[in-house]
Amino acid sequence: MRLLYHSLAFYLTLHPTLTAAATSTTTTSTATHSASSTSHASASATVQACTIRSPNTHAFFDLNSLHIPDPASAKTKHPRPNSWNVSGYDLGYNFTVNFCGAVIEDLSDKGGVVGVEKNLWNDVGAYYEQGGKVYSLGQASSAPVFRGRKLVMNYTDGSPCGADAMKREHVIEDLGPREIIDPDKDKKKNKPSKGHEDDDDDEDDDRDGRKDEPKKGAALQRKSTIISFLCDKDPLAPLLTLSFIGASPDQCTYVFEARSSAGCSGIEVAKQTLSPSGVFGVIVGIAILVYIVGGCVYSRMVLHQRGWQQLPNYALWKGVFGFFKDLVIILTSSCTRFFPSRRGYTRVNGGLGGNSGGIGRNGRGRGDSDAENRLIDELNEEWDD
Ligand SMILES: *[C@@H]1O[C@H](CO)[C@@H](O)[C@H](O)[C@H]1NC(C)=O
Ligand SMILES: *[C@@H]1O[C@H](CO)[C@@H](O)[C@H](O)[C@H]1NC(C)=O
Ligand SMILES: *[C@@H]1O[C@H](CO)[C@@H](O)[C@H](O)[C@H]1NC(C)=O
């Protein structure tokens, strides 16, 4: 075994190009591995963020091209300065949306998001502005889902909405008069709120019992967004045509339609930690290693060779090396044709095999002169006519 390692080390030092190739394959494979693992970090270990495989057709969908990166960290020269805009038409406000990540607008600059905790402001996936206030349509999501054949993305946990939003305003307006502890808390919790009075009382419960009942806070109704993706195969179409479809009457749910080439199934890239070429490289590298090590051991132990002779198929490789040496000589010497000629004469239509000797030269040269002769003969015949 020690001998094996010895000979391996010996021949790897003799072949720096080979070691370079081997290490480069391993480094590229580790590089791709680390790159993919960092990009996977936000999602689960196996699924890349913002991609999904259809459970029915097993087609692969990647929505990452719709993500507008933060201009501060974007790599492109002219990053988009704003997220996707969508007209809200009759609603009276326009929406700002991003995919596979938060909107790039700084929402704390705009005065913060109504009813959303401050540490979540950086992760809002869609919002609108109304009356100088920013309302979140939900936290950004990187997990598209399939409903049957439909590719859908949903954002949840936006600003409070519906009855809860009204309650909030009441809380702000008249907090004082309602500091009464409700005796039949539990009964009301199970009932949907019916009117004003109940709403207010419920909110009291919320505030009083928040510490002991964190679940109650989670039950607060919040705005959410559903984005339905359509495949647009037209290569001339813009990357994304986002349309606002509608909002529920309580303005708790907003529905959008995203028509995009990203909604078409595509080819999954870099799913594996090792790219196909990386796998190929590793296989080739291992094969070469096995060939050299095995060949060396065989030559040494069985054929009792020493020195360079230990290389497997030494004669063959020597021949190959000689061939390439000749090839280089031929190519370089044919290049010298383009420098000022030392012979004072160049061929009329000499090709590659120009001035100096080499393997392919004679045949080529003869072919050329044959062609010249034929051409001259033809011209002669034409003159005769
Ligand atoms: C989107 O909105 C921003 C400001 O919020 C504006 O500068 C930009 O022109 C809008 N883009 C479109 C396509 O409406
Ligand atoms: C919404 O966007 C449209 C253009 O798409 C613009 O004409 C309109 O003024 C915008 N509305 C608001 C409230 O910003
Ligand atoms: C939204 O997506 C989450 C997963 O991200 C899922 O649990 C939830 O059921 C979805 N809600 C709707 C209304 O589609």
UniProtKB/TrEMBL annotation:
<feature type="compositionally biased region" description="Basic and acidic residues">
    <location>
        <begin position="174"/>
        <end position="187"/>
    </location>
</feature>
<dbReference type="GO" id="GO:0005770">
    <property type="term" value="C:late endosome"/>
</dbReference>
<dbReference type="InterPro" id="IPR028927">
    <property type="entry name" value="Man-6-P_rcpt"/>
</dbReference>
<keyword id="KW-0732">Signal</keyword>
<protein>
    <recommendedName>
        <fullName>MRH domain-containing protein</fullName>
    </recommendedName>
</protein>
<dbReference type="GO" id="GO:0000139">
    <property type="term" value="C:Golgi membrane"/>
</dbReference>
<keyword id="KW-0813">Transport</keyword>
<keyword id="KW-1015">Disulfide bond</keyword>
<feature type="compositionally biased region" description="Basic and acidic residues">
    <location>
        <begin position="207"/>
        <end position="216"/>
    </location>
</feature>
<dbReference type="GO" id="GO:0010008">
    <property type="term" value="C:endosome membrane"/>
</dbReference>
<dbReference type="InterPro" id="IPR009011">
    <property type="entry name" value="Man6P_isomerase_rcpt-bd_dom_sf"/>
</dbReference>
<feature type="domain" description="MRH">
    <location>
        <begin position="48"/>
        <end position="266"/>
    </location>
</feature>
<dbReference type="GO" id="GO:0007034">
    <property type="term" value="P:vacuolar transport"/>
</dbReference>
<keyword id="KW-1133">Transmembrane helix</keyword>
<keyword id="KW-0325">Glycoprotein</keyword>
<feature type="region of interest" description="Disordered">
    <location>
        <begin position="174"/>
        <end position="219"/>
    </location>
</feature>
<dbReference type="InterPro" id="IPR044865">
    <property type="entry name" value="MRH_dom"/>
</dbReference>
<keyword id="KW-0812">Transmembrane</keyword>
<feature type="transmembrane region" description="Helical">
    <location>
        <begin position="278"/>
        <end position="298"/>
    </location>
</feature>
<keyword id="KW-0472">Membrane</keyword>
<dbReference type="Pfam" id="PF02157">
    <property type="entry name" value="Man-6-P_recep"/>
</dbReference>
<feature type="signal peptide">
    <location>
        <begin position="1"/>
        <end position="21"/>
    </location>
</feature>
